[in-house]
Every structure is written in structure tokens, then in C-alpha cells.
Write the C-alpha cells for this entry.
Amino acid sequence: MSDKNMGFGIDIGGSGIKGALVDLKTGEFASKRVRIPTPQPATPLAVVDTIGKIIDELNVPESVPVGVAFPGPIRDGVITYIANLDQSWLNTNLPSLLKEKLGREASVLNDADAAGYGEVIYGAARGEQGLVFATTLGTGIGTAIIYKGELIPRTELGHIEINGEDAEHRAAASARDREDLNWTEYAARLQVYYGTIEHLFSPDVIIIGGGVSEKFDKYAPLMNLKAKLVPAKLRNRAGIVGAAFFAEQEVKTKNSIGRKISQALASKSENAIVTD
């Protein structure tokens, strides 16, 4: 396969760091998936070193775009809050650190954004041109919004307040386990959460990801929403695939901007007036 059809995705988790080459035409892995346990403590240098080991093991070509899905909010490559890794990550510029330590350019995005993006491009909402609201139900609720195929990053809508309480405290998969809810009871919790999301955003499609997506038929028929409700399709591939595709799009955008600047400079030079 040509390098131009490949991307490389890394998904950083609290227990494991996973990576694979991705066929960007299909969203399928173009290599084996490599998983290395997340180092403890999970400091920036330790995690970047682990990423380097995965890149080396898979012999990722220099020409292949690298995307990294990170478990926390990110603004312009800088970690703004951290929950699942070492607190020394706060204010770390991850792309700069990867460039410094590994000599690699990389695009970085939140892991929920990566998973949601992957599902729209290759998975449960492939080809959907409306507003897609993607969620990952786990310890908390990760969210992503994609409109007409474009990611709107940095949403944290698992933390919206409903009836005076953080939504994920009642509707995350962890709440079902903690309170020993049956599927009917859990469906009622999800109805309130997704009903609130509908009221605020009117999505066309809602994707449910996380482990509970495997039991979709146990609770989805008990819910009444206007949006099309679908289970995630890519499962544990979503973060890697979404990160790889995001990286390719970032490279295309940078190249396009570079061409426009070059063309503008060339045009300015040709039209310059030479005077004695």
C-alpha cells in the first residue's frame, strides 16, 4: 500500500497505549495493533517514550501522518486538564514534546473527539451530513460533535448540569454499575440525558459508544428520541482510526495554506513595480 493512503493513530489510555497504521480509504488497520501498558507514573516523558516504541515497532514511515488521541481536554496542542494520567501533564504542549523527543510532527486531539470522528468517517454514522452527537459511556461521558463531516472539537457535554447534578454522575456506564441499575432504569437515565442534548442541539444522529454499546438492544428500544440512535461500530478501533484520519486532514490543511501563501508571494513578486 502507498504511504499516501496511510495514517498512523495512537490512543493513549489510563491502562494501555495502543497504536496502528490505518488504511485511510477504508478505516481498517493496515498493520497489527500494538499495545503497551501505560507507564506508571504516566508522566509526559514516559508516555512519549512509549509512543516512540510503538512507532519503532511498526516501522512507521516518516511520510505517514501521525495522530494522537489524548484522554483529556486539549487547546492548540496544550493539555488544559488531566484526570487519568500524571498531573505533570498540565500545560504540556504534546505536539512540541513529540517533535522534540521523537523528531515527529503529530496532530493531537481529545480521545472522545477522535472516536466520534472515526465513527462519522468510517463507522456508525458514515456519510451522515447532518449534526452527529457521539458519546462514549464509561467511567464518565465523553462527547464529540461532528457537523457535515467537520469535527467541532473540545466539547465536554458529559458535564452539563441536569437537575442540579453533573450528567455523567447519573448516566455514565459507571453509574449503572455503581447503583446496580437494570436496563429499564438505565434507559430512563439515558432518556433524560439525551433528551436534554436534543433540546439544546437537535442532532440528527446520536451515537452510543463504550462497553454498553454491545447491549444496545437492551435499552435503546425503551428510549424515545427524535434523533436516530445508533450503537458505535468501530468499538476499540475508533480512537486510533479517528486520530489517523484527523492527522491526514491537518496535513492537507497545512499544505493548502502553504500553497496559498506561496502563490500570493509569487503573485506579489510578479506584480512588483521596479523603480530606479
